[in-house]
Specification:
By secondary structure, this protein is an alpha/beta fold. The protein is 31% helix and 22% strand. The structure holds iron/sulfur cluster.
Length: 447
């Protein structure tokens, strides 16, 4: 008698690393409940689509993905940020089985159970199933995202994340550390700390004291970084706003406890625009702060993102941003032309700029920064650096330095790295660079 196949669910994951973590949680629960994850639409009994709704292009991509899943499979559950945007999903695709917002694994599972009952009616006991202790992950085995909080207490005028994901809710320190330790035990060599506002970790809990390894510890980013720094892996911080408290983290970087890397989304340099954007830390002197970080930790890599063509931005205000970039000498910069997001307060501001101007300023900013980034990479030529290997093929190894986050920064091509293995941490000598990437050779055997 042939054995009945377990029910199978297809999964489409779109959006940012925070959405990836939501997908991992849903996939982990699906596995715990006995479902298998189907690699194709045709092989799935139903499909879950985790959407992004941040900017117009992401909304279109998400709606197209839902349309494709409906055409190929027909039974679709939608989750994620787009699901929190009123009736946009059901207006466009009334046939979907259910819609939830982001960070809603429990609701998604209820919808899955309703439309595709779990085998033997079993739910939620991972001990009975083959779920790895670290859960199901969508990143390679050697790095993982570690989400420390959900939501955001700020109300930046261009952003609808607080409306989609709610106010800040920090995870207890011991829970974050348990997850980090489990990931490291499973072979992870790099933890990427993410949230909407990493510097605000624990504010909602009034930095209450938790316990880790029998020691009392405040629920605060500094204490969390100290504990993560004891795990012996790369710890990289994303989405850190330049509050004065961030200064306390720099000595940990200088001491090699966490990576000398900060992803600080500054968005602009002009005070008036920052105020109109309602940015956190809008009154900080970011230049002075950056200089003091570099004094304490000369190795630090600084990454930031900026918005060009915000409503009312004058040519002089834009040029102030270019002057800031010249003075700040950031290592990595991303820029977005302002895009009016449905429901964002900034849409009502006077002085909306034509798309061509917003785009032209973005292109000008990127061209301006290109020289700075290249010069900073050129300064590494001849130096010995540590890299983490991501891939190995016939051309050598593709790796990343401590200054390169996966997917958003550059790579290090190790031309003689054929014998290396994915996840290896090795010393290489930098021989050349281009605008984004470094070329290097293994340093083993160098005298
Ligand atoms: S800090 Fe601002 S941009 Fe970031 S999630 Fe919060 S409201 Fe949005």
């Amino acid at each position: 008698m042939s054995k009945k196949q377990p029910p199978s669910v297809g999964f489409v994951s779109l959006g940012c690393p925070k959405a990836t973590v939501d997908s991992e949680q849903i996939l982990t629960r699906l596995r715990a409940d006995g479902y298998i994850v189907a690699p194709t639409y045709a092989g799935a009994d139903l499909v879950v689509v985790n959407t992004c709704g941040f900017i117009d292009a992401a909304v279109e991509e998400s709606l197209a993905a839902i349309g494709e899943a409906l055409a190929e499979n027909g039974r679709v559950i939608v989750t994620g940020c787009l699901g929190a945007k009123g009736s946009i999903v059901t207006d466009n695709h009334p046939q979907v089985l259910a819609v939830t917002g982001p960070h809603a694994a429990a609701e998604v599972m209820l919808a899955v159970h309703a439309h595709l009952p779990p085998p033997l009616g079993r739910t939620g006991d991972p001990r009975l199933d083959l779920v790895p202790p670290q859960g199901v992950r969508l990143t390679p085995e050697h790095f993982a995202y570690l989400k420390i909080s959900e939501g955001c207490n700020h109300r930046c005028s261009f952003c609808v994340i607080p409306a989609l994901r709610g106010d800040l809710v920090s995870r207890p320190l011991a829970e974050v550390m348990r997850e980090a330790e489990t990931l490291v035990d499973a072979g992870v060599r790099e933890l990427l700390v993410i949230s909407q506002d990493t510097s605000a970790y624990g504010v909602d809990l009034k930095h209450r004291t938790g316990f880790w390894n029998g020691r009392p510890m405040k629920t605060r980013l500094l204490e969390l970084c100290q504990a993560l720094g004891d795990l012996g892996v790369w710890v990289r911080l994303h989405y850190v706003y330049p509050y004065p408290s961030v200064d306390e983290l720099i000595p940990l970087m200088a001491a090699g406890k966490i990576l000398p890397y900060l992803d600080v989304p500054l968005q602009h340099a002009n005070r008036r625009i920052l105020k109109a954007m309602r940015r956190p830390a809008d009154a900080e002197d970011n230049l002075a702060r950056i200089e003091s970080w570099r004094r304490l930790c000369p190795e630090i890599t600084l990454r930031s993102t900026f918005i060009t063509g915000f409503p009312g931005e004058t040519e002089a205000e834009f040029e102030e941003l270019l002057d800031f970039l010249e003075a700040a000498q950031l290592d990595r910069v991303g820029a977005f032309a302002y895009s009016p997001v449905d429901g964002a307060a900034a849409n009502a501001l006077p002085g909306a700029l034509p798309e061509a101007v917003r785009e032209e300023r973005r292109a000008r900013l990127m061209e301006f920064q290109e020289d700075i980034s290249t010069r900073r990479l050129e300064a590494k030529i001849g130096r010995l650096i540590e890299v983490l290997v991501d891939e190995v093929d016939e051309e050598g190894a593709l790796a990343r330095s401590q200054g390169d986050a996966p997917e958003i920064d550059g790579l290090v091509y190790v031309t003689n790295g054929h014998q290396l293995e994915v996840g290896d941490l090795v010393q290489v000598r930098v021989t050349d660079c281009d605008v984004h990437d470094l070329i290097a050779v293994c340093a083993a055997g160098e005298s």
